[in-house]
From TrEMBL:
Matching PROSITE patterns: PROKAR_LIPOPROTEIN
Protein name: Peptidase S51
MF (Gene Ontology): serine-type peptidase activity
InterPro entries documented for this protein: Class_I_gatase-like, Peptidase_S51
UniProt signal peptide: 1-29
Single biological process term from Gene Ontology: proteolysis
UniProt similarity note: Belongs to the peptidase S51 family.
The keyword Signal appears for this protein: yes
Domain of life: Bacteria
Amino acid sequence: MNIWKLTLKYLKNLRIFLLLILVISCQNTEDKANTSKSQSIGPKNGALLIGGGGITDEMWKVFYDLAGGKKSKLVVIPTAFDENTIDYDPEFKILKRQFKERGFDSIQFMHTRDTLVANSDAFVKPLKTATAVWLTGGRSYRTSDTYLNTKTHKELKKVLERGGIIGGHSAGASIQGSYLARGGRGLEDNYKIISNPEVGFGFVTNSAFDQHHLERNRQYDMFDLLKIKPELLGIGVDENTAVLVQGNEFEVIGDKYVTIYDGTFWSNYFNEIDTLRSGKNKFYFLKNGDKYNLKERRVQRNKFIKSKNITSNEQKEYVGNYLFEKSKVFWNNIIIENDTLKFQIVRRNIVRDPIPIYAYEKDLFFDTDAELWFHFTRDSLGQIIGFEKRTHQFIDGLNQRFNKITE
């Protein structure tokens, strides 16, 4: 009898143990799924230019250069236009002239409202050799309704796989995300951010791009969408501004701002993500030259720039206290700590943690955390007398993009 009781007790405990393992396993699987689901991934190859409306000269130049310059083969898809616009210029001569003026020689147009045509081999032929594609403004749901999950959609992805670039602004921006922000129209002709249809081309996964963002005071609309789609990364792009996506990073290009909705709050004043202010209804702005890591969902830093090795004696040249304000309320301190040159801010009795800085060239240093550049100055005797902190992307007249120095 005792043996039976012990056996039953053992089986009961074993069942509880197995249930616990199952619950923990399910939780881990769910956590991994949620982590993966909340990441936003850009194209492995190629580039995306996603504009808020209006194109600056800099944005045109970036698109033209990445398209291949004079050797580029451009395909323009104007399907987002309404019928009146297309009827006014049925052969797209006016639109073609705009691209000609920007230096493009080889330009083809692809337009249909018929999904069967969009799914045919004959229709997608221009995309087979294209190095660049431009998606026009208008209404993004027109583009989605026609091309989503067709051969056209597949060939667009292949343009990226070959290293080409896909660009667009306004409706041509929204369609590039996974969620088609403002893709539908309400009964009162009001285009809300929660759309129908909902699915975009998904060149950036788990993302929603809103356009004309600050110009039309849309900065709070994104919260309505994120309440029902919390896995999405919300990105608002203002007019005359764009994000250049390469891999899992993007850089802001243009005159105005890009608004980020990633559940945190960031300010360059703190040189870090301010987790104390993270949470509900928070967003922040990025400006021209700022970079963002889509996968990690955080502002990107200079961590990939290669530093120049300097000797310990050379390091000592830069050590010192440099007055920032005459009142001595605020000043900068350069120290050596653990064989690394570091920059430290001192304000009254508050001493901030030192930030490592690395030599880029003589008298020019950078840090990998705040993306600051330190330009040291010398007197007539060659002694270090101070430095200037800079955040812009031009170093010695060269434009620094994605941690590569190009003319």
